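Let us work through a complete example step by step.
Step 1: write down the sequence.
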Amino acid sequence: MRKRTCCRPGVERLESMTLLSGIARTHAVAALVKTAPLPNPLVLTGTINGTLQTKGSHHLLKVSGNLSPIGKVSFSTTAPPTGLMATQTSLTIPHGTAKLFVGLNLHPSGTSFSGTYTITGGTKNLAHETGSGNVSGALTGSSSFTATFSPA
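Step 2: predict the structure and record it as tokens.
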């Protein structure tokens, strides 16, 4: 015959366990903080740095920086703007799973440029965003640039 043993949960065993409902609540709050809506109109402030690499007919634009209120931005694209020193160009800035569309009206002067930006919408939660301001910058090397966004 088998010996029967009775096992009851002890207080110590329960206290050392993490409740799953507590973890779920923490992640839900973190998710709400990350998806806080952006203001509309959206005014970008901050600086981005980038490089444009050209090999034959292939182009690669790499950009990183910090644009408030979006935060840290970092992206690369094989479809760069029409030119860093062109008067009319555009950028598509990723923000989470959405994208922000920004038109640039630049006025080059030697190795520097200044002008305005206009936010023309986006995708998902950025679809109805608008806004505008100033942008200025300079070429910092043969294929590098820096650009600063500020309110109008």
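Step 3: interpret the result. The chain has a mean pLDDT of 81.
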